[in-house]
Specification:
This protein is an all-alpha fold. The chain has 2 domains: about 25-120, no CATH class; about 195-420, no CATH class. The protein has 16 helices and 2 strands. The chain has helices at about 25-50, 55-65, 75-90, 90-105, 105-120, 125-140, 140-160, 165-190, 195-210, 230-260, 265-295, 310-320, 330-380, 380-390, 395-405, 410-420, and strands at about 300, 325-330. It has a two-stranded antiparallel ribbon with strand order 1-2. α9 packs parallel to α13 (about 330-380) and α11 packs antiparallel against α13. It is flat, with a radius of gyration of 31 Å. The two termini are about 15 Å apart.
């Protein structure tokens, strides 16, 4: 472990914050903010649903008052007229503040979410979010393609009555289920792609970052009194970069170790398993619904004209080796499909879950431990660099940076505090 002796008070920095009395927020202001946020959420939900899912406005009008659906043909004119009336009786500053807030709400939401993470001061939670985002972007192509094909197959089965389209969708869903389950099985034995990225960063730093910390030949080993002002600035700049990077690596290793001990990563993997269950049940509900649309005699029914939800209910029970009275497979094909769903349940329950409990936990700890060791080793490797380039240890380096008023001292002190916590 790198020398983490207490930093001398000579190197400490007093951070002065200008404290001003907080303005009291009235109840009406809070209500105004909540209403504005609700409106922004509704607007973006409508835009997303309209573009990527279905015509939400048409559905609402058909449900509430079908006789007025024709008004949607003139919704642009109506919305423009309503906004004009609001603008007429409202101050410009409110209109523009609302418009900008709603327009940039996705970015505002992300900003609030990031602020929430830092406000909680929980690096475990922060690393959980970071690792989840890394995982999403790491396999973004696979997840997007599979999700698009999956949703398109569900759409064809739910909307169309063409037998060829339904059969093609049924076969596609079965193939996707095989791919998803086999991939989940393989990932149990593969090294974690998340921690591989951390390791790659360390290897990258050895080649492209640490090499840049060497002093120029004309100032290396030269007494400080013989250096001019420009050379001293260069000397202290290089010195504080070395110390800062060392603190960063040790800080990262410490927080990754805390993340490892929290076992919160298991929750993320557990959510992935729940998604597999959801996709499997939904897929077989669509498959059985498609079979019913092709030939209702594939099932024995105790209800007239069953809908999609009835088959979803049937699929959910069948996945857990149960049955319902409303729908029973009565033909060879529907019985084979029922058995296939049971086989997927067995594959998931016996193989995936057992491997996750017995193998994945150990593999997860080994991957993270190896990553932490590499980060620690890289941080400790900077100590000889300090001795060779500056003839200083870390405590002496901190004193020098404090004496020479290094601009990065505040960040270095903050990282050091995080290492000692």
């Amino acid at each position: 472990m790198t020398d983490t002796a207490p930093i001398s008070t000579d190197a400490s920095v007093t951070l002065v914050s200008a404290s001003q009395p907080a303005k009291k927020v009235t109840k009406s202001t809070l209500i105004f903010r909540y209403i504005r946020q609700i409106v922004a959420i509704c607007v973006w939900f409508y835009i997303f649903t309209k573009l990527f899912v279905f015509d939400l406005d048409v559905y609402i009008f058909n449900f509430v008052s079908p006789h007025y659906v024709w008004l949607l043909q003139y919704k642009f004119i109506l919305v423009t007229f309503i906004l004009a009336l609001i603008w007429l009786v409202t101050k410009n500053q409110y209109i523009w503040s609302w418009f900008l807030y709603i327009f940039f709400y996705p970015f505002i939401f992300i900003g609030k979410f990031v602020f929430f993470i830092f406000k909680k001061k929980s690096w475990i939670f922060a690393f959980a979010i970071i690792n989840t985002l890394i995982s999403l972007f790491k396999s973004a192509k696979y997840k997007f393609v599979v999700s698009a094909i999956f949703l398109f197959s569900l759409f064809l089965i739910g909307i169309f009555h063409n037998e060829i389209a339904i059969w093609a969708s049924i076969l596609t869903l079965l193939v996707l289920l095989v791919i998803i389950n086999i991939r989940a099985f393989i990932l149990v034995f593969k090294p974690s792609s998340i921690f591989e990225l951390y390791t790659r960063f360390i290897r990258f730093s050895k080649v492209h970052i640490v090499k840049g910390f060497a002093l120029d030949k004309e100032i290396k080993g030269v007494p400080q009194v013989q250096l001019n002002e420009q050379q001293i600035q260069k000397w202290v700049g290089t010195l504080q970069n070395v110390v800062l990077y060392n603190r960063f690596l040790l800080f990262l290793a410490k927080k990754l170790k805390d993340y490892q001990e929290s076992r919160i990563g298991i929750i993320s993997y557990g959510l992935g398993l729940l998604i597999i269950i959801f996709v499997t049940v939904l897929s077989f509900a669509s498959i059985n619904f498609g079979l019913y649309k092709i030939n209702p005699s594939y099932f024995t029914l105790t209800i007239a004209d069953p809908g999609y939800f009835n088959f979803l209910y049937y699929s959910f029970h069948n996945y857990y080796f149960s049955s319902i009275l409303e729908i029973t497979p009565s033909a060879l094909l529907s019985q084979v499909i029922s058995m296939l769903e049971n086989l997927f349940a067995v594959f998931f329950g016996v193989i995936i879950v057992s491997l996750c409990i017995s193998v994945f936990n150990e593999k997860y700890k080994e991957d993270l431990s190896r990553t932490i060791e590499e980060i620690n080793a890289e941080g400790e490797a900077l100590q000889p660099l300090l001795r060779d380039e500056f003839n200083l240890n870390f405590e002496e380096a901190m004193k020098k940076i404090g004496e020479l008023k290094g601009t990065l001292l505040g960040i270095i002190l903050w990282l050091s505090k995080g290492i000692d916590d």
